[in-house]
Each structure stands twice: as C-alpha cells, then as structure tokens.
Write a structure and sequence with these properties.
Blueprint (H helix, E strand, L loop, with lengths): L1 H16 L12 H7 L2 H13 L3 H14 L4 H13 L3 H14 L4 H13 L3 H17 L3 H23 L1
Helix pairs in contact: 3-4, 3-5, 4-5, 5-6, 5-7, 6-7, 7-8, 8-9
C-alpha cells in the first residue's frame, strides 16, 4: 500500500507542483491525470525551466520524463546540462553516459560530456570526448560544429601540454 501511495504522489503531486498538469485537473482521478502527462510533456517543461535558468525545476521535470521513458536520451542529455549549470558534475557525467549509451552516435552528447569532464579536471578524457564529437560532426556534415570542436580541442590540448611540461 505504501508503494502505491509513493507512486501516486510521485506521478501526481510532482507534475502538479512543477506546472505540467493544470490545477483544474487535480480534482480528477489519478489515472486521468497520469494519462495526461507524457514523458514529452515533462521534457518540454524541463526545457522551459532550463531556458529560464530554473535548473532545479528542470532537473525535476527531466527526471520525471526519464521515469516515464528510461530510454529518453534527450532527457538525460538535458538533465546533464542542468546539472552542469549547478556544478553537480558527477551526476551530470552519469547522465551524459546514459545519453551516450542510448545514442552512441550523438555528437552533442560527447561534446557536453567533454565539458563535464573538463570541469572535473579530467583533461585527457575531455580531449577524447571532444575528438569523438568532432569526428561525428564531420561525418554528419556539420562543418560549423566540427570547426568549433577543433578550436576547443586545440585550446585544451595546449593546456594539456602545459600541464605535462610542469
């Protein structure tokens, strides 16, 4: 019984709190409310929070999207970005790893994970991720993103050389 109550609270109260379900809908039976909020609804709400720099709200919304669809790579990636913004680098890394596990050819996921790793001071892993991102952008014909990654790679490789010379 407690497990059912927890699930009901998680699936009804949180969406209501973060504004996915209109307050008028709160008087309906939980099954009606649950069917109204999809993983995409939570994801879009998370994007709204992220755009408005409400990173904790974004994390909550993306978490709900992932609970409804555990293979929602974009939700993991966006939650990673929100966690990156608040400095929760370890959790951000886990989210990026999940996004890459689901979509291994997503150049943006490697680019973002490289940035997370840079914040974790793991320069070698940053270089590896950014090189993978650059290769994927190039293979996908995204010249602008490829050139951007090559520029970032050059800068971080110079930093790595300075560190190694010390």
């Amino acid at each position: 019984m407690m497990n059912f109550l927890y699930q009901a609270i998680t699936l009804v109260a949180i969406p209501l709190t973060i504004g996915i379900i209109p307050k008028a809908a709160s008087s309906h039976a939980p099954l009606v409310i649950i069917s109204q909020a999809s993983s995409t609804d939570f994801y879009r709400r998370g994007d709204d929070f992220l755009e408005n720099k409400d990173y904790k709200g974004a994390i909550e919304a993306y978490t709900q999207a992932i609970k409804l669809n555990p293979n929602f790579a974009e939700a993991y990636q966006s939650r990673c970005l929100a966690r990156l913004q608040i400095g929760d680098y370890v959790a951000a890394l886990v989210d990026c790893n999940d996004a890459i596990r689901i979509r291994p050819n997503d150049a943006d996921a490697y680019r973002i994970r490289g940035t997370v790793r840079l914040n974790l001071k793991d320069i070698r892993a940053t270089v590896a991720d950014w090189q993978t991102a650059a290769n994927l952008y190039n293979a996908q014909g995204d010249r602008k993103s490829f050139e951007y990654m090559m520029s970032r790679l050059k800068n971080v490789q110079q930093e790595l050389q300075r560190i190694q010379q010390r």
